[in-house]
Amino acid sequence: MDKRKDYISWDEYFISLAILSSKRSKDPNTQVGACIVDKNNKILSMGYNGAPIGMNDDTMPWSREGSFLETKYAYVCHAELNAILNTKANLEGSKLYVYLFPCNECAKAIIQAGIKEVVYVCDKYKDTDSVIASKKMFDECGVKYREYEIKGKEIVITV
Question: pLDDT digit string (tens) for 149-158?
């Protein structure tokens, strides 16, 4: 008997885990998840965008507009940063899977952590200064990045 042929690729697996992780986010507008793996495809960490540990996400503001202190931007940890902070593993040479291309603040953390590749699905903020800065830093620091194209394969989780 031959092995089955319809199994998912590593990229499909890890992007799917990042997307599944995003379902934990309480953000009403943007849900992002991240998955970090080593060179042997072992999962090192996961994260999603949300309030820092200990901060009540029922009372924090989730608005995108208003004064800075009245918006989510003052408080939310991005998925990439959470994944980096959620592990004690050495991330040197690892790969990060994430739905949205990382902002410049996350790019700094990615570089400092030693992550060497970023695989993303969506680059909808590509014309913003934040993402332009991210790509400039990644290019200068030798962090590869590539877009993962979702091929329309449906991955269903059943219980």
Answer: 877 677 777 7
Beta bridge partners of 1: none
Q: Is 80 a catalytic residue?
A: yes
pTM for the complete prediction? 0.93
Q: Which position among 12, 65, 80, 147 bears the catalytic label?
A: 80
The pLDDT value given to residue 157: 73
Give dist(CA 79, CA 72) in Å, integer.
14
Strand partners of residue 41: none
Is residue 105 within 8 Å of 76, Cβ to Cβ? no
